[in-house]
Amino acid sequence: MTSEENVEMGSGINMPIRPEEAAPPTAIDDSHKPSTAIAPLAPVVQQPLRSKGSKGKRKGFGAKGLPASVERVVLPASVDLVELRYEGGKSEPGDDVSRVTLSKVHKAAQLVLSEDRLTVTGHKGFRSARSTHGVHSGTWFCEVTVTHLGPTGHVRLGWATKKVELQAPVGFDANGFGYRDVDGSKVHDGLREAYGQGFAEGDVIGLLIHLPEGGRSLESDEKKYARYKGHWMRVEEEEAVPNKLPGSSISFTRNGVPQGVAFTDFDEGTYFPMVSLYTLPQQSTGASVAVNFGPVFKFPPPPPASASTCEGPSPGAAVKAMSGLATGMLASTEPPSTQIVKA
Asked: What are the DSSP calls for 327-340, one per residue?
């Protein structure tokens, strides 16, 4: 079935004539037969998305979904319906855009977030969650405290793009870069290599990424929508092919001690801090970690020059806390007068 036959076509469909309404032909004449030609694809006009109320009434979609007033979108005849995905509005449901937290949407369904969405707990197998905000340029830092593992628990920490698999640990595929607790090895695209020290319950791991100027975010803000089988769906356009970003680097710290550069010269794009948790089914309590996006950290971020290649940031480059994506604050280990960092 072609895309034109699948996309809702509005009033552009030729309606067949019922047999009782059609006059019998007086001669051999095919003009009375319904046309089998497909009408040209009509423009799809976006309408405000609506959902059912508690008593079956229709109500507006609201500010978190499509805007109440939208412009006409004309879909080309070559739209591939396989590329349509269910999509909400610009902001994730329940997300506070003024705060950087773990994402309520971009996590494995089996993971449980705390009310402030800074602690995550996982059971039975490796599952992953990423932050609400990502970065594509600059030098950024956050901390993760391993709060509980139990007898069978494990954790991996790292950075990943939006394409990463959430039902697997970070580093499982080519979209993520991970640091393992077991032996301190690093993992990317399923390949483990020796790297730093292992870590355990109670340790604080720092995650530092440097992305030189010039890298593209590869995240499109422009969204087009169409109706398909009664549902509003987003049209996913072909994405740009990422280029290598010379001078890019990812490094980690353990309790404030730099572990060195783990990954360099990887693809440009938008990267998100990511945590992955694991336990065996027989463990009654889940493994948990707490994420600190700053600006106040338990241990100071490593100097940018020690966490980069020679093409990386200059010694004077500022390391920014991930919380700065929402507030514009730089990384700091000095608490405000009203805030206690740790006992």
From this structure: H-PPPBSS--TT--
